[in-house]
Write a structure and sequence with these properties.
Elements: H1 10-16, E1 28-29, E2 36-37, E3 48-49, E4 52-53, H2 57-83, H3 89-96
Antiparallel strand pairs: 1-2, 3-4
């Protein structure tokens, strides 16, 4: 097994690393509404793919509205639980007396 002749310094190793970077996602414009979308996917704004209406816009709105309602309900339930008053040791002693 080969071993390096000398230790590679931190600077030398870090100089090599700029090439290991994340590239921006490739996006295209929707031909119908002009929204920026990933290629080869249905537009979430208008529901068009390759110039054809694949998903009805109302369906997209309904699913978004349904998910928003469920997230709001969950958020309300969690805030109710977290805002419940917590009793301290002093308060419990006062209640027992």
């Amino acid at each position: 097994m080969a071993l390096p002749f000398r230790k590679i310094s931190k600077t030398r190793g870090r100089m090599r690393r700029p090439h290991y970077k994340i590239e921006a996602a490739n996006t295209v414009l929707c031909k119908n509404c002009g929204a920026s979308i990933k290629p080869h996917r249905v537009c979430p704004e208008c529901g068009f793919y390759k110039g054809k209406n694949v998903v009805e816009k109302e369906e997209v709105k309904e699913t978004k509205a349904a998910t928003k309602e469920t997230t709001k309900k969950v958020a309300k339930e969690t805030t109710k639980k977290s805002t419940a008053k917590k009793t301290t040791k002093k308060e419990t002693k006062k209640e027992t007396k």
